[in-house]
Amino acid sequence: MKKYILDLTVKQSERISPKHVLLRLTDSKPLPEMLPGQFVEVRVDGSETTFLRRPISINYVDKEQNELWLMVAMIGDGTRRLGELKAGDTVNCVLPLGNGFTMPHSQEERVLLVGGGVGVAPLLYMGAEMRQAGIEPTFLLGARTKEDLLEIDLFKQYGRVLVTTEDGSEGEKGFVTNHSVLQKEHFDRIATCGPKPMMVAVARYAHQADVECEASLENMMACGLGACLCCVEKTVQGNLCVCKEGPVFNVKQLLWQI
Q1: Residue 193's closest CA among 80, 57, 94?
Q2: Is 149 exposed, middle or buried (0-12, 13-18, 19+ CB in 10 A)?
Q3: What confidence tens digit (pLDDT) does each residue in 127-164 have?
Q4: What pTM was computed for the model?
Q5: Is residue 101 within 8 Å of 216, Cβ to Cβ?
Q6: What is the distance between the alpha carbons of residues 175 and 74, in angstroms, rounded to a whole number?
Q7: Which of 50, 51, 217, 247 has the least CB density, counted as fewest CB within 10 Å?
Q8: b/e map of 51-70 (b: 16 or more CB within 10 Å)?
């Protein structure tokens, strides 16, 4: 897909948790086509310590409102600067980058979308596109506590939502791979994004259940174009740049111990 460098305007900045901000960006022209699972490299202006762009998953694309949504986890100086943006500010973005999730082949497929923490972000757009295609996904979303769950009401617009929290404050207690649905139901396809230990556990479950599974990796990325080699992942095909060959991989490609 063609890549663009665009100065987008902040239409709205919303604090959705103490650590997360949802940026709704727009442009005077129609936004380019973007796929679920792709990401954006965002330039951070006004920071003396941030020299590289920050890779952020595409959370949602509202085609009617011509909006791109980015969920920003404020964990360092660069992302905190992004979290301070106000309506009317300009954000320079390179997009769309990487490869997205594989869409189901038919409306009969039962698809499970598993997310943890800020890793839930790309699954919202994936679920919305699936619903548009007449497929209702099942979302399995995990967090440490009830307060750490993100965009739950939005996910409910596109499919069934199941929740786990480590402290049991919402949904079933434990990790996503402990949820009872995995013992009760069969799925034809799984897509996952979140902390690596969680994704490895999901990949292990998929392997044991003989289910196709894709994972969106969150390796450290600098350029987003496969030039700097800092996001390399070991695969059955050798070392591959996550930003260019991923970030979505079939877990059978990865040299994970599952």
Answers
A1: 57
A2: buried
A3: 999 999 999 999 999 999 999 999 999 999 999 999 99
A4: 0.96
A5: yes
A6: 23
A7: 51
A8: ebbbbbbbbbbeeeeebbbb
